[in-house]
Write a structure and sequence with these properties.
Mean pLDDT: 95
Strand content: over 45%
Number of strands: 11
Structural class: mainly beta
Order of helices and strands: EEEEEEEEEEE
Radius of gyration: 13 Å
Length: 117
């Protein structure tokens, strides 16, 4: 059974930084495309950043230059370093994985990030 568990959310002031981490268990992490999605109150879930098995990254325009996604295949983890946080970054952040061989997709339960003074 594939499981994704996020950690690292919390309350931070505008301009601050947070690092989210997600660990995958139950599958071969190295083949998965990994992503971080977010859902703000009253809005649809949107992609923040993704990283392929080969390390190619993709970012939403709203986070480019501020967020960095990275993966550690030895630890089965994908991290999202978030800098220069803004109040509009407030959302529940979800870890996502997609197995390109089975097309199965998995979600974590989410971690809340609140950017407020």
């Amino acid at each position: 059974q594939v499981q994704l568990v996020e950690s690292g959310g919390g309350l931070v002031q505008p301009g601050g930084s947070l690092r989210l981490s997600c660990v995958l268990s139950g599958s071969i992490f190295s083949v998965h495309k990994m992503g971080w999605y977010r859902q703000a109150p009253g809005k649809q879930r949107e992609l923040a950043a993704s990283i392929t098995a080969g390390g190619v990254t993709n970012y939403a325009d709203s986070v480019k230059g501020r967020f960095t996604i990275s993966r550690d295949n030895a630890k089965n983890t994908v991290d999202l370093q978030m800098n220069s946080l803004k109040p509009e970054d407030t959302a529940v952040y979800y870890c996502n994985s997609r197995n390109p061989f089975t097309s199965n997709e998995y979600w974590g339960k989410g971690t809340l990030v609140t950017v407020s003074s």
